[in-house]
Structure formats: structure tokens, C-alpha cells
Design a protein that fits this description.
It is a single chain. This protein has helices at 2-21, 41-47, 70-78, 80-101, 118-140, 149-166, 174-198, 221-243; strands at 108-109, 245-246. It is an all-alpha fold. The chain has one domain (2-246). Strands 1-2 form a two-stranded antiparallel sheet.
Length: 251
């Protein structure tokens, strides 16, 4: 009965959040944006062929990189090689933490000074799904709205941290995160090599950019952001596990 009450309260909170954001004047409707407010006029003038000086959200086809978010255009297109270096720095940091703390799968979960009650456990599971899906949404729409792989990945990792704090028995599968991190990083490099092979230089976009504002647009940018989100989320989740794990001593 207690679990049912906690579940009903969590669902009611979620519905209240959705209703509060729906038809709210403070939040613009998704997809409606004046692109001229987000990019420079020189970018607009050089970016459109056949219709100079005007980019229409949801109509303009095949612009230079196809991203409606100018920050994404810079981070994952014009200076994507720098972003690969930033992801590598995070990987080195995660590796250093793992080597320093010497965390192994056989080590035990660090004991908390408090025992989470059932309300905290049930509520955290509901919030876990909300935070996780929000992180996925931010990653998938990084080329359309503010967001992308880095904030989306940290959201995914924060959902893992929530479960660690709300359940003293929870522990992630570290090997799975290590595998996911390695695969995502490898595919990032492979995409860069394909740009060198199929286009002109490393990490150059070699796919059609589509229509500005469409989910399937901006060439390789959404793919790169998905890989960054998976890599960042898995690395930070691994760091969390390392800090919340202690060596198991046999007596």
C-alpha cells in the first residue's frame, strides 16, 4: 500500500510538471524560432544558396551544416576536432580516478551513514526515468535547440547518482559503462576518418544536411552528439561508482 501511494504521488508530480509547462507564455512552443536571433547576418548570407539572406525554420534546405543551434555548429562542426580533445581529457580524468582508487567489480558498495526509506527509493526510481529521458531528449535535439551531448550526458550520469544516493544497495555495472565509453569514443574517431576519406578533412560533414529544424538533419552532427552523450554519461557514471566503492577486506 505504501509503495502504491508513493507511486501515485510521483505520477501526480509528473503530471503537474507537464501541465505547468504546457501553454506557458514563458516557454516558447517547440519548433517556432527566429533563426536570425541565433546566428550572425554574415553566417546567414554565406549559408544559404539560392535564397541569400533568409533562413526559414522548417523550410530552408541544405544550408552549410544544417544546425539551427549556432553553438552546435561551432562545437560539433567547425571545431569538432577540439571537442574530440575535450572528450579525451574527460576520459583521461576518469581513467586517473579509476587507477587512483583501484576500483574493481568485486569491491563492495560504500556504506552510507543513513538508510533511505521506501518513499525515497520509489520516488527516485520515478525521477530516474524522467531525468534519463530528459537527457536523451537534450542529446537528440542538440542540433535544434540549446543542449547536446555534454549536458545530456551529465543528466544521464546524474540519474545514476540519484540511484546511488537513494538506494544503499544499488551499484552500476562498471564493465558495461567501460565498454560503452570505448565504443562511443571509437565511433567518434571513425566518423572523423570517414570525413577525411569521403570529404576533404578529418571530421568534415559528409552527409546531407537536410532541412533546418527537422530532427533528421545537420548531417553527422546528431550522430556525433549521440556518441558524445553516451561517452560523457558513461565516463561520469564510472567516476561516481569509483568514488562510492570501497575495497572489500576479507577477514
Amino acid at each position: 500500500m505504501k509503495n502504491l501511494i508513493a507511486f501515485v504521488l510521483s505520477v501526480a508530480l509528473g503530471v503537474l510538471m507537464v501541465l505547468s509547462l504546457t501553454n506557458n507564455d514563458w516557454f516558447a512552443q517547440f519548433g517556432y524560432v527566429d533563426l536570425a536571433d541565433r546566428v550572425s547576418q554574415s553566417y546567414i548570407d554565406k549559408d544559404v544558396t539560392g535564397n541569400p539572406g533568409e533562413i526559414i525554420f522548417g523550410i530552408t534546405s541544405n544550408p552549410e551544416n544544417g544546425a539551427a543551434n549556432i553553438v552546435t555548429s561551432i562545437v560539433v562542426d567547425y571545431r569538432s576536432f577540439d571537442t574530440l580533445g575535450e572528450v579525451t581529457v574527460l576520459f583521461i580524468s576518469a581513467l586517473g580516478v579509476a587507477l587512483l582508487l583501484n576500483s574493481q567489480d568485486k569491491n563492495k558498495r560504500l556504506a552510507l551513514n543513513f538508510k533511505p526509506n521506501f518513499m525515497l527509493r520509489v520516488g527516485s526510481r520515478a525521477l530516474f526515468a524522467i531525468i534519463l529521458m530528459t537527457g536523451v531528449y537534450v542529446i537528440l535535439h542538440g542540433h535544434l535547440t540549446p543542449g547536446g551531448g555534454f549536458p545530456g550526458g551529465t543528466m544521464i550520469a546524474s540519474s545514476i547518482l540519484l540511484l546511488y544516493l537513494a538506494d544503499d544497495q544499488f551499484r552500476t555495472k562498471v564493465k558495461g559503462f567501460k565498454l560503452l565509453e570505448g565504443v562511443a569514443g571509437s565511433f567518434y574517431v571513425i566518423i572523423g576518418l570517414l570525413g577525411l576519406l569521403l570529404a576533404t578533412y578529418f571530421l568534415q560533414n559528409f552527409l546531407p544536411t537536410g532541412t533546418v529544424g527537422d530532427l533528421l538533419s545537420a548531417g553527422v552532427i546528431p550522430i556525433v552528439y549521440i556518441l558524445i552523450g553516451l561517452k560523457v554519461g558513461s565516463e561520469i557514471a564510472g567516476i561516481i561508482d569509483n568514488f562510492l566503492t570501497e575495497e572489500e577486506v576479507s577477514l
